[in-house]
Known about the structure:
The protein is α/β, with parallel strands linked by helices. Helices cover about 35% and strands about 25% of the residues.
Amino acid sequence: MTEAITLLPSPTQRTAAALLSRSFAYDADVLPLAYDGSALTVAVPNDGSDLSERLRQLTRKEIRTVVLPIRDIREGLKALYPAAASRDADSLAAQTLDEIFAAAIGSYASDVHLEPTDGRAGRVRLDVDGVLQADRTLPAGLFERVVALVKVRSNMNTGESRLPQDGRLAVSFDGRSFDVRTSTIPVAGLEKLVLRFLQRFDLVPDLEQLGMGAELLARYQKGLKRPGSFCVIAGPTGSGKSTTSYASLQTISLEHANVCSVEDPIECRIPGIAQIAVNEKAGITFPLALRALLRQNPQQLFIGELRDAETVAIALQASLTGISLVTTLHARDALRVAARLAEFGASRATLASSLTLAVSQRLVRMLCRHCKIKTSVSSQAVAVARRYGFALKGDAWEAQGCERCSYSGFQGRIGAFEVLEIKPELGAAVESGATPTQLGKIAQSAGYKPMVVDALRHVASGATSEGEVLRHLSYDDAD
């Protein structure tokens, strides 16, 4: 068994190394060997339970040990963690950044936050399933060098630290490629940096995999197929709007349609779609790009976000000419989409005649299937479910925590949705200036259910907990 283990650093071994600090590995004579996403395999001189328990507490991972001679372990450590004295400041920053990427990829993080702390030092936190988890701290000097390195690789202006900047870089790790969107903002004399891992087209889920129930999915797909449909997907940042948008675009037959998009930035490159990236420095704005695309005879448009009055006006006009359109909007829920667009100057009459679908969503964490435990739901949850036609029994599940889920109690996320079809009666209410509450009462008579009701469906199935639902939504939304 010992002969099958290579002590030369491999991409898989570097992923494992990112979970342990150099100082701990040397002090404890522990050599990281591999990490498969749940279990960390290490070489140790003696297979003791105390050391394994320390490793579990430190990494919050399942630990597998292999016994090797201490001489081989120390030789492996020299190759895996080069001595700090032999590296200059730039190479140390580069290695630190590689370790941060390894930790993020190994934890399936969507974002990495590098934030300044006291004394020009910094901390790194990973966004895993919508919750920030501490990863490491960076001493003064190293934090600034890591941020500067990201700015160089992202083609940002390294001499500018007083204004926000956006960029993009590519990362190759363990035989896989990742696109990363980078963003800096000035904070207390330093810069805060966020790295977001963008989706790959081959990993975009189908609509059926997003978590919509059969009834909602059928309603949504029917609305998308209407000629000249105008679909607005609403929700806060990080609620999965882009994923739903790209999954929706996958339903289009690209071979027989001219499909175009304007995005800021392009989060997922899709073969067969003409995608334009907004670049305001170069003069490419949403309105300019949209006007150019409308001269290209598109059948389907995707607008990354409706964020200003001019873009909203062009989008509505395009829809009225028969172009099908999918876009996103920052709005609390589907009932507030029309009001939000009206704030951008859109006339109620135009909205009533062009808007066909308003969708809103949240991502709720899924319970770890290895450690979730039974509990009961509140009487309020049972009453809300009953009001909308399904039985929510007293039994449910809640989070506990184990090695498989890094003791968080959750693994992965699933969508909770609401789909609002703008039919004639509802369109007339939109045109007359009805409030979201009034729209909700009209829509419910046609089968509309608030998002919290869809989320309770996931509670009933054991996919998530009532507490997780209430972290995002309120039962007041069902009144």
